[in-house]
Design a protein that fits this description.
Blueprint (H helix, E strand, L loop, with lengths): L1 H8 L2 H5 L5 H23 L1 H10 L4 H15 L5 H5 L6 H25 L3 H22 L1 H7 L5 H32 L6 H22 L18 H8 L2 H17 L6 H8 L4 H9 L1 H39 L7 H24 L11 H30 L4 E3 L2 E3 L1 H22 L1 H4 L3
Antiparallel strand pairs: 1-2
């Protein structure tokens, strides 16, 4: 027993996460927050969020509109430096803003249908609440990324991201599965709506714990090279750094293609294909197993290929899986989802590990608030364009369907084909410009 304790004490994991060393306390806090945030997201987004909107009378087009509202709000992060750069210490203001975001985004959306019954008015109010919550988040959340970057220097970053993804996904997947089984048991019963409301209240309780956890780490001074506080710096500084700018172009391409189906895919699986909560979420939760089994493999490949090449190869390998996914319908969803999603889980361990470092890989040490805001702006604008295009496409072709070979095709499936093309092009662009994108 003593030897086991000694092995744990001197293990790499205990070196990364403990409450004895200042930087390790910061990483431990980040890890706990990642677990809590993943649990909150599972309970308030994805299939549960789509179902919550459906039971409240929101149609596919309006779901698409509500889904890209956060992307519009996130563009206001451009004003974040004007607020955050005025604070030498930001811990308290970040905690207050996070509580406000959770209260509006979770409680506001949950309680709205109690007071508003008309479907059209409800859609407008949902959009307004989502915009307000994400506006608060856009103005302040970047402060956490800049603060926490101090705790993950280059020497531990790959192991930190790998460990964080394994643990947070595993624990939050258990939460997802339990809630899925309950939701499926009550599906199409008078209690279906009630369980969706209960899950959102549970998520808010978890959110309060998340705010408390993020108050634990030490806050360090924020390095500055530019003395003046100006919105212009958000654009001037990134455009003076070619490698960072090219990295943002890669992230914009990936964000655009990824969001072509983000607002419609769950709706299509639930409504058109008749897939159950449990089936979707059991497959999603299976990602935790792939993280545990294949993280060391992908860390090895990362050491061989480095960050950019790993991202490029896994991005291109996603293309055939997404193409196969587009043939999903009510008669074949079981075998297609199993093949596609499990293959994507394997590739996802690699691409998510690489993607986690993409904002920082070519980011200078100074004036990071401006670079983080630029990254947020670029990824959200490109996601907005992808989601806006897909929503417009669905609105114009919602009633249109055709047969390709022997497979019926709808607008959502066509968007999946376009997404597959985007994944291939993004990976190809990185491979072609690998030298320009790789850090010195």
């Amino acid at each position: 027993m003593h030897k086991l304790i000694e092995r744990i004490k001197y293990s790499e994991f205990f070196h990364l996460f403990n409450f004895h060393e200042e930087q390790a306390v910061g990483r431990t806090s980040m890890l706990l927050s990642a677990v809590l945030t993943a649990s909150i997201n599972f309970l308030t987004t994805g299939v549960f969020y789509t179902s919550f909107l459906i039971v409240n009378g929101i149609n596919l087009v309006n779901i698409g509109i509500i889904s890209f509202i956060p992307l519009i709000a996130n563009c206001f992060s451009i004003f974040s430096p004007l607020i955050l750069e005025r604070f030498e210490k930001r811990k308290q203001i970040l905690a207050i803003s996070r509580i406000l975001y959770y209260a509006i985004n979770i409680l506001g959306i949950t309680l709205l249908p109690v007071f508003v019954t008309d479907s059209h008015t409800k859609s407008i109010c949902f959009a307004a609440i989502v915009f307000l919550a994400n506006l608060v988040n856009a103005l302040f959340s970047g402060g956490y990324a800049i603060w926490h970057l101090n705790f993950i220097p280059d020497t531990v970053r790959a192991h930190y991201f790998s460990s964080q993804q394994v643990i947070s996904t595993t624990i939050s997947s258990v939460v997802l599965l339990l809630s899925s089984f309950i939701a499926d048991a009550l599906k199409d019963t008078p209690n279906q709506t009630l369980i969706l409301y209960i899950l959102r209240f549970v998520a808010f309780a978890i959110a309060l714990a998340d705010v408390l956890v993020l108050l634990l780490p030490t806050e360090y001074p924020y390095l500055k090279k530019v003395k003046s506080i100006s919105i212009k710096n958000v654009f001037i500084l990134p455009f003076s750094n070619k490698k960072f700018l090219l990295t943002m172009l890669v992230m914009a391409m990936w964000s655009f293609s990824s969001n072509l189906t983000s607002s419609s895919l769950n709706y299509y699986l639930l409504k058109d294909c008749g897939v159950s909560y449990s089936f979707i979420n059991i497959i999603n939760a299976g990602y935790a197993v792939f993280l545990i089994v294949f993280s060391s493999f992908w860390r090895h490949m990362m050491g061989k290929w480095m960050w950019m090449k790993t991202f490029a190869i896994t991005a291109m390998l996603h293309m055939p899986t997404t193409l196969l996914f587009s043939f999903t319908n009510a008669s074949n969803f079981i075998w297609i989802l199993l093949i596609v999603r499990l293959t994507q889980h394997f590739l996802g361990v690699g691409i998510n590990l690489a993607y986690a470092n993409m904002p920082y890989i070519n980011m200078p040490c100074e004036d990071r608030t401006n670079y983080i805001v630029f990254f947020t702006l670029i990824t959200n604008l490109s996601a907005f364009c992808g989601m806006m295009l897909s929503t417009y496409f669905i609105a114009k072709t919602e009633s249109v369907s055709f047969v390709f070979i022997v497979f019926p095709f709808t607008s959502v499936q066509v968007l999946m084909v376009l997404q597959a093309i985007g994944q291939l092009l993004t990976g190809f662009y990185v491979i072609k410009n690998l030298k320009k994108l790789s850090p010195e």
